[in-house]
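Limitations
The structure tokens in this dataset are predictions for the assembled complex, not deposited experimental models. Users should treat interface geometry with appropriate caution, especially where small molecules or nucleic acid strands are included. An illustrative entry is reproduced here so readers can see what is and is not provided.
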Amino acid sequence: MNAVKFLIAAYVATWVIHGVYLGSLVRRFGRLRREEREVKASGFRRSASGLQRED
Amino acid sequence: MKRLFPILSVLTAIFLAYAFYQAWWVAPTDAQQGDVYRIIYYHVPSAWTAFLLFFINFIASIQYLASGKASTRTAAKWIVTVIGVAGVIACFLPPAQRLIPAGMRPSAVATTVLLIPIFYFVIGWLFPGDRLDVLAVTTAEVGVVFCTIVLVTGPIWARPVWGIWWAPGDIRLTSTLVLWLIYVSYLVLRRFSNSAQTELLAAALAVFGALDVPLVYFSIWFFRTQHPQPVIGGGGSMDPRMLDTLLISWMAFLCFAFLVCWSRFRLELLHREIEEAHAMESLGGAAAGASLPLSRSAR
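Predicted assembly:
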């Protein structure tokens, strides 16, 4: 049975799906880091309980 | 912690590469299917990982639903403990053993039942308060990714072996598709609902969605299906080298899933912190007439 192309397709598909998802995580992290910088610029600072307004 | 993540990522990449080497070059070729059977080393570990993530989502959702009142929390703890203990005892009683599908060991069922209280208390201890909801959304999203891989690699495997991509009406295939759709709708609900009750609604949906997991798993025992019998805990058998490779692959995928969940968990926490800061900014800025728009970018 010459079905190696199906085997390769399954393995490639698996890593394409993981790659797309990891890419979406990286993109969302980048966007949130930018927003975090904006929030910090507007007077918030990071503490143990999250972002807190500076007094 | 910041150093631990890259170290674990490198170790997981090495582990995945080793699992790939085992799957392609060490595991023997199947006498009937030839090399195409090696899809099992991605298909089955992905399915097991998805089931585990949906199980964690189920436990976290129950805890989140029960966390409203102290009395509900206590009642839930007792119910889970009783289910665990009674379930384990029942697995070794002859009348209950007749309900266990042929080929499945009672000790395997008892171990699975025992995992319910163990996971319940460990998750409750590790993820207090709103972190349960963060864990629920994390495991649902990563679980959907693994379930997608199952639904994609399954038909690719079926085409050369069965001669068809999909067996319409097959209970195993259909119930897996329904499981995927339930968790996709769970994520859609969380993404687009603006209600203050979204977390509670999503948790309730997750509890009902998780009921499909046993249906998917046991469907091959209770219904006629094209899908083969399971190789572990079921009627199927496997060469020990194949089984070793399958378990190595699963361990590698579990490590990978853990790292992905860790990243998604941190992403969700950051998202919530920023939303909170935006809300505080809006409250403070309302008087001054200036506010930042609410962030929705993590979802």
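Some entries come with short summary sentences. For this one: The longest helix of chain A spans residues 4-41.
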